[in-house]
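Hi R.,

Here's the chain you asked about this morning:
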Amino acid sequence: MTWKASAAFGADHGLPIVAEVDVAVVGGGAAGVAAAETAARQGLSVLLVERYGFCGGNAVAGLSGTICGLYAASDRNRNQPEQLVFGFADRFLQAMRSCDGVTAPVRYGKTWTVTHDPLRWRETADAFLEEPGVRVLYHCLVVGTVIEGEDVLGIVVESKAGRGAVSARIVIDASGDADVIHRAGLDFTIGQDGTVQNPTMIFRLGNVDVDRFLGYWGPDTICSPEVTEMLIAAHAAGEYHLPRAKIWIFTTPRKGELLVNATRLVGRDGRDLYPGSPEDLTEAEFVGRRQVRDYARFLRDHIPGCEESFVNDTGVQAGIRQSRSVAGAETLTNEDVLAHRKRPDGVVRSPWPIELHVGDKPKLEWLIEDYYEVPYAALLPRRGENLIVAGRCLSAEHEALASARVTAQCFGYGHAAGLAAAAALRSKRRLRDVPGAEIRDLLNADGARLD
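And here is the predicted structure, written out as tokens:
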């Protein structure tokens, strides 16, 4: 099937106007919530459009379940995490802690992460959006953009009420998949020569004797070489379908529960799946749910503490690591990450490793005792005005994105995009004419601690 490449409407579209706002944010994941809340706190009128009935994106609908990217990786400090990322990410983390919505930091190889309760994530996001007066439209899908030349004047949304247009002075594409970029007919890239990281189907395992499990599994959420060997042997014997041999299991804020990141979703014919294709994404859902049952059965059969466990639930959707990325005014390169590059126009700090999900064992390239910075221009399309992206659809090379896409950094992209929108509108400048160093200063003034 051939799918339409874009859906751009002219300024004379004739559709009913749903809203007229300073800023329209598309997508209510980590980046979208941060962008909308930040822009509204700056006194702008803001509308957030989200396809589900809740915010959270991959963190909640995809059940990724962790806030990764907050802490330094270290070969020396294996007992106490060093937090390097602040600003909106830290504000959200503290709010989640106040309602017992996150665990204490848990080990993930050479670094740390925290696991969250997805219901508490939704509720915290609702509160963050309501307090500064963000208007939210859940159950709305963006199906087009309003364009004049290369100026984006708004978005077109579809809901059970029908189709309508939103007029906006600035649009923030926080869809994760560069949906606005795509529908505006602007330029984007897809992974490395069209190949993206494997999707996953994360699940929660209930009725676990967590103490017995931890006594066997140990403090690191990444499985041991012995467990990897067991997975490989069980898969080879045909007892279970276990295509990924390096798996991660996290305790959660809920009693007797584990969060399991284990599946590797490829087509039934072995091909890589592309989440921008509805056929491929549908196949990922079927394949993912079947794999979950096999991994859950393996855990019950072989891992102490899991003997009486059952699958609580899976993600509402397959977890997406990578799809479309904006072709940016600047691109975060693989070398930027590996060289731990700092820069005066850096607006987001990332200590997270290159975590590349290909094959049966994810590749991890650690950034030991250091971090890199993402430039502001990586959020700006090289063509198109009044538009900025936030989240995993930033402009980045394939392996760089495997580091830059995680939750704490997505909070940071949204924080930067919200401040950039306010700076541009107040000074009547184009987004691309606002220097990245100026956005960095605004972020520091708003608690990001980049300097």
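One quick note: DSSP finds twelve helices and 21 strands in the chain.

Cheers,
M.
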